[in-house]
Task: structure prediction
Amino acid sequence: MASGRCSGAGTSVTSIDFERVSFTYPDSDAPVLEDVTLSIAEGSFVLVTGDTGAGKSTFIRAINGLVPHFTGGEFSGCVTLRGDSIRNTLECAPRDLADLVAFVPQDPSAAFVVDRVEDEIAYSLENLGVEQTVMRRRVEETLDALNIAGLRDRSVRTLSGGERQRVAIAAALAPGPRVLLLDEPTSQLDPQGAEDVLAALQRLVHDLGITVVLAEHRLERVAGFVDLAVGLRLGEPVSIGDPAYVLESLSSGPPVARLGRLVGWSPPPLTVRDARRMAPALTLARPPAAEPVAGTSVLKAVGLSAGYGRQLVLRDIDLTLAEGDIVALMGRNGAGKSTLLRCLTGVHTPETGTVELRGEPPIAAHNVALCPQRPESVLFAETVAGEVEATLKAAGSRASPDATLEALGITELRDSHPRDLSAGQRLLVAIASIVATDAPVLLLDEPTRGLDYESKMRLVRFLRSWARCGRAVMVATHDVELAAQVATRVVMIATGEVIALGKPGDVLGDSPVFAPQMARLFGPGWLTPEQVAAAVTA
Amino acid sequence: MHQGAWLLWALGGGLVAISTTNPFYLLPLLGVAWVVHAARGRPGPQARSFRIFLIFGALTICTRTALVLFLPDIQWGNIVEAAMEGLRLAVLLTVFGAFNTVSDPFGVLRLSPRRWHEPALAASLALSIAPRTIAAVSTVREAQRLRGIDVRRWRGLVALAVPVLETGMEEAVILAESMDARGHGRGRRTRYRPERWGRDATLVSLASVFAVLVAGASSFGDDPSLALSAWPIAWPEVSPVMLAAIVGLSIPAWLPAAAPARAPQ
Result:
């Protein structure tokens, strides 16, 4: 397909133009994008937002031609990159646009081609035929721009989540593209890591005039950085413009925007900074005291130390979970959260210390259940009901799966194929298949990756009802707003040690990194917009 | 160290392994592969794949020996002969396994001439499939175990295979997309920073070339010590030169590694 118009080096993209773009995936009847016409000017920092399945990834991939070149399907209309050359994605394949448009997929670890960090960054430069001397300089500059010079000799397989994301961005940036596309770049990062990556992107926009287009669910993280938003909703026309305007028309939004909607601020603020100007108008009663959890203890871990080989990851951890508890386990990437969860389930044997569940050792599926980071890694059956039945059968039970499906509110998906569902629905199915044996302790590892607001609320409702029936829940998460919303207690770990443990208001409230937006606005103790709206007195 | 030196090392070790069925040569070579892997193996999933090569090696010995048990009027000589041939293959696999953990597949790829880039890239990606699949298998196995499904049972196999294959397919598509979006296949290519041939590379190459020469000379000279005499079974002779060549192949383990790659958790 590459014609003469695609060859040669481009040096600028002054605008990205969608003209009447419609696209339908090969196995689907309904179009994902329908008659989209819009234009993105050079140097914009663009947020693409919308619910799961609304076409965020599709929109981003259409810009460099991955859609339709890689997906197939029915594509009509035209995406044009205008600059010193004019190229459209129908004539030019993604590789022909590689000098102008760079792309960072959601899971960068699967996208690494080469093993060593430095070589990975040079890979695009080699493909584009950049001179060796220029290449050396570009690689060094890029290493510095993303502050990863210390990682240059490392294998990409041994990097932490935040490091991986930065290396992936560096690899994309090395050839000096004019447009950078990112699919949920912060979904695997802790709050500080996300902040760093977004700040680095903003610097690129400001200093080099690069156009950055990113899809993201965690609006509280990105809303303050972007200057243009594209709102996608299935079956409705796409909206583009000022982020405040676009987000107002969507039901979701960062917590400050939800608060704005609850108390009638118009337009709702997008960032804590915006909200601060409006907040003094509210008179609030005292923050509600968190209800104490009075259940009996279900899980008790004493003096837990664990590691891999000679390296100790957890040091002397004491922890109890009581009936009705929902504990948020927080800490930066690599702090030892996943290892702690693995110890509590008994799959990882600690060096010292004990884990007891009502006096018994942990037995997977019997008294403790864990939902893994990727729900897909447990799904294998043909139907949702079959998935739950498989767990019950393995436990020697003949019970019907319907009760579990109802508890999660997914009865209507009973006969669907798990792979056909959205990310949020898949998570609920994975949870259903894990809790079917009714273990008294449920652990979840990073459940809100890639979940839209609606799916997150369903998860929150489920966790609350599950804990209320005398069970204990622990969620390892980077999502501070989730922790603020659902947790009865927060455990913060750093370098394998518990550094804080207590009510969410106390632990998260005054942390500069982990504080939820409401605490930033109204002080420690305030957690959710609903709480604040209920306490407005005048 | 230069990837070419590793390639020579693997070639030397492999040729020595193929040339002999003498356990007094093969077992030291096995030890050499082990220490080199232990001293120079890169962290990450590759490290685990060495174990898989060892397991396959053990399986090879068992199958090769088991096959002769079906022979009519079987004698001890048959069994010993078969076991030594199995051992030869097992050591060859171990040497390759060690090479796999110490070398960087993409670095090896860089050594290929430019016009061979495409097939070499396909080969290096194929090499990276093994560690990726091993990682996926252990993730899925653990997740299913936590759900109470034992994937070692025949019925649990579907519960392991489906998620592993689907993850593999998804990752393959992501990789292909990423390569295309990064300009793979545009024709004109340059090469980043050719690796330098240092003193270590020279030492390792010398040891490897020495091993190749000794193994070659012994084979063409019909050195009796190369084959274990099984009729009747007798202790084989040992040539000190050959033994020296084998021990020489352990030289990478004694050289200080230039840039220690740290494995974080």
